[in-house]
Fold this sequence. Notes:
Distance between the termini: 41 Å
Structural class: alpha+beta
Bound molecules: flavin-adenine dinucleotide
CATH class of the largest domain: Alpha Beta
Helix content: 10-25%
Strand content: 25-35%
Number of strands: 19
Amino acid sequence: xxxxxxxxxxxxxxxxxxxxxxxxxxxxxxxxxxxxxxxxxxxxxxxxxxxxxxxxxxxxxxxxxxxxxxxxxxxxxxxxxxxxxxxxxxxxxxxxxxxxxxxxxxxxxxxxxxxxxxxxxxxxxxxxxxxxxxxxxxxxxxxxxxxxxxxxxxxxxxxxxxxxxxxxxxxxxxxxxxxxxxxxxxxxxxxxxxxxxxxxxxxxxxxxxxxxxxxxxxxxxxxxxxxxxxxxxxxxxxxxxxxxxxxxxxxxxxxxxxxxxxxxxxxxxxxxxxxxxxxxxxxxxxxxxxxxxxxxxxxxxxxxxxxxxxxxxxxxxxxxxxxxxxxxxxxxxxxxxxxxxxxxxxxxxxxxxxxxxxxxxxxxxxxxxxxxxxxxxxxxxxxxxxxxxxxx
Length: 392
Ligand code: FAD
């Protein structure tokens, strides 16, 4: 049997939530182990669009909740971390865009009245024209209004690589996870591939995998929901950078386009928004690609799509269960019997998720302890971006 290990905080799941938390805890002097069954970030994180939302999109609903005000601080916290002066040193992580844009084609600007009246966007949105427009919209045929939102877009693969570097020797590849209780039923830690790991606290941040972990631990709450998406990827020389929500008539963006660098030097458009939600999920990949081509042909007729390669990606967002599949606007953390379980609900909210865990440790009086140095452990590899897998 592998030798027993001990640590302060044992984290399961190395997506952005687990990796960010791990780096924060190590900075605070805690010893940690972060267990990953597949690849680093390869769940939802590397499949995300990398937008560091400040809540502006949610202001489109007109009524802004208190929770969406809480997200408003995330762009500042990320910007400081990316500059190396924040809660983590993320210098070297590639910033894809300093801003995300909101683009209303044609005459939809009327829908934006309540949006501009809301607190989350006041003073943080500027209209842009001419050369300030995103490159893909710089065409004399372009009609519509474009607003610059103070929201960043990060290159998630480079973010995951940096967070993995900050993890030092704390990463462990492990698949079989079982609870480890004492005779009185108290959680001592977990057994990972047969190796007992004692911890002062265990954190489950395994994204969609948390549901099965809770079942294995015999715990019913918190319940999880999955929100399925059917994303579209397009790769080609004619595609220039675009980071924008394109508005339709409704409260959700019709399309959300982000642009990612492929290994061969081309750009990949990664398309979500309303097109990737319920009706999009019901479409076959061929129908979904045909719908995207039609939408882009109507919205951006000057872009030559004839040589573009297409693919689609089905992926679920994992979130705490909510009535009616509404989107939670905050990181979520629940605590029971020495176990902390949660979902950041957004990549952007990873700092908020870490805050919640740290607050819980501090409230429980958990301090860094003394632990034996770690032996050589099997390490998980980084995840591969979807565009390299689907459009090599
Ligand atoms: P994950 O990244 O899913 O990581 C969980 C990890 O746990 C995985 O590596 C998995 O392998 C591991 N795991 C699972 N089970 C086990 C187990 N039993 N043992 C050990 N490890 C296990 N958010 C934004 O803020 N901005 C965006 O632009 C954005 N775009 C998105 C686009 C898409 C298509 C999707 C799907 C999501 C998007 N999100 C976005 C949401 C964001 O991606 C997620 O909220 C965030 O990445 C979740 O991080 P996580 O660490 O909780 O989960």
